[in-house]
Specification:
Elements (H helix, E strand, L loop, with lengths): L8 H35 L7 E3 L21 E3 L22 E3 L10 H4 L6 E3 L19 E3 L19 E3 L19 E3 L19 E3 L19 E3 L19 E3 L19 E3 L8 H8 L7 E3 L4 H4 L5 H8 L5 E2 L2 E2 L3
Parallel strand pairs: 1-2, 2-3, 3-4, 4-5, 5-6, 6-7, 7-8, 8-9, 9-10, 10-11, 11-12, 12-13
Antiparallel strand pairs: 13-14
C-alpha cells in the first residue's frame, strides 16, 4: 500500500485564497468592462448632438451615462430596453432644449423622479411598461403628445394641468370610465381602445377633438358626442353596438368604423355628406336595399367594408358586383379596388 501525503491545510487555504482572489479580480474586471461598455454607448455622440437614440441596447441602468454634456439635446430615446428606473435623467432638467423622451417597451412600474423632473417635454412615450397609475406628469404643462399604451392603468387622472395636450393615447389598459378630461380643451386625438369602457361619456368639453378611437371595449350605444362638432374620424369597432345613432352634430366625419358590432340595419348616416370611408364588416347586414337607402346619397363615399355580413356570406359570387351597382360612387370594396 502506498502512503498518500497528508493534506496541508495551510497550503489549501493559500490556494483557496488565491482562487478567490482571482475570482474577485475577474468579477471586478467584468463589472468595469460593463461600465465601460455603457459609457461607450454614448461615446459616438458629439456634445452638440440634438438626437440620441439607444434602442434595443439591453440597458438595465442609466447610472454612469453622462447625459448632461448634451446641452442642445432635443430627442432622447430608450426604446426596447430593460430599464426599471430613470432617476438619472433628472440631470437633464437643466437642458431646456429636450422636448421628446421615448421610453417605449421597458420595465418601468411608475413615472419616477427622473422623468417627472423633465418639465420642458412636449412628447413623452411610456407605452408598453408596467405602469399602474398616471402620475408624475402633472408639471409637464408643455406636453403635446402623451402615450401610456399597454400598461396597467385603471383610472384617467392627474391630467388637468396638461392644457396644451393635443394627443392622448391610453389604449390597452384597464380603464372602465372616461373621466377627468374636462380641462384638455386643446385635445385633438384621443385613443382609448382595448379597455373595459362601457359608456361614451364626459367628452363634451373636448370641442377640438378630431379623432376618437374606442375600439375593443364594451360600448353598446353611440351617445355623448353631440358637442364634438369637429370630429372627423370615429373608431368603434369590436363593441356591442346595435345601431348607428346620435351622430346628427358630427357632420364633418370622414371615417366611421363600426366593424364587428351587432348592427343589422344601417341608419343614422344619410346626413354625413363628407363621409369617405364606412367600415362595417362583421355585422348582421343582410339587405342591399338597406345599404342603398342609407348610403346612396353619400356622394363623398369612396371606400366600404361589408365583408363577413350576410350580404357577402350568403352570395359571395355576386357580392361585389351588386355593391358596385348599389353604390356607383365607391372606388374600393373591402381591401380591393373596384374594376368597372
Amino acid at each position: 500500500m502506498v502512503d498518500l501525503p497528508a493534506a496541508d491545510p495551510v497550503a489549501d487555504y493559500v490556494s483557496g485564497s488565491e482562487s478567490e482572489g482571482h475570482g474577485s479580480e475577474h468579477s471586478e474586471r467584468s463589472q468595469n468592462a460593463e461600465e465601460e461598455k455603457e459609457d461607450d454607448l454614448l461615446a459616438g455622440f458629439a456634445d452638440d448632438e440634438t438626437s440620441v437614440e439607444l434602442m434595443h441596447s439591453r440597458l438595465r441602468s442609466l447610472e454612469g451615462l453622462s447625459f448632461e454634456r448634451f446641452t442642445e439635446l432635443k430627442y432622447l430615446g430608450f426604446r426596447q430596453n430593460l430599464l426599471s428606473d430613470t432617476t438619472p435623467l433628472a440631470s437633464l432638467a437643466k437642458v431646456p432644449t429636450l422636448k421628446e423622451l421615448d421610453l417605449y417597451d421597458n420595465r418601468l412600474k411608475r413615472v419616477d423622479s427622473g422623468v417627472a423632473a423633465l418639465t420642458h417635454l412636449e412628447y413623452l412615450d411610456l407605452s408598453f411598461n408596467n405602469i399602474r397609475a398616471i402620475e408624475g406628469v402633472d408639471a409637464m404643462t408643455d406636453l403635446r403628445d402623451l402615450f401610456f399604451v399597454s400598461n396597467k392603468i385603471q383610472t384617467i387622472e392627474n391630467l388637468s394641468r396638461l392644457t396644451m395636450l393635443r394627443q392622448l393615447e391610453l389604449g390597452a389598459n384597464r380603464i372602465r370610465v372616461i373621466q377627468n378630461l374636462d380641462q384638455l380643451e386643446c385635445l385633438e386625438e384621443l385613443y382609448l381602445g382595448k379597455n373595459k369602457i362601457t359608456r361614451l361619456e364626459n367628452l363634451g368639453s373636448l370641442r377640438k377633438l378630431r379623432i376618437l378611437s374606442i375600439q375593443s371595449n364594451r360600448i353598446t350605444r353611440i351617445e355623448g358626442l353631440e358637442q364634438l362638432e369637429l370630429l372627423e374620424e370615429l373608431y368603434l369597432s369590436h363593441n356591442g353596438i346595435e345601431r348607428i345613432e346620435n351622430l346628427e352634430a358630427n357632420t364633418k366625419l370622414t371615417i366611421l368604423d363600426v366593424t364587428k358590432n351587432r348592427i343589422a340595419e344601417l341608419s343614422g348616416i344619410a346626413h354625413l355628406q363628407q363621409l369617405e370611408d364606412l367600415w362595417a364588416s362583421g355585422n348582421q347586414l343582410a339587405s342591399f336595399e338597406n345599404i342603398e337607402a342609407a348610403c346612396g346619397a353619400l356622394s363623398a363615399l369612396r371606400t366600404v367594408y361589408f365583408e363577413f355580413n350576410p350580404i357577402q356570406l350568403t352570395q359571395p359570387a355576386n357580392y361585389r358586383r351588386k355593391l358596385m351597382l348599389t353604390l356607383p360612387q365607391i372606388t374600393q370594396i373591402d381591401a380591393t379596388l373596384c374594376r368597372r
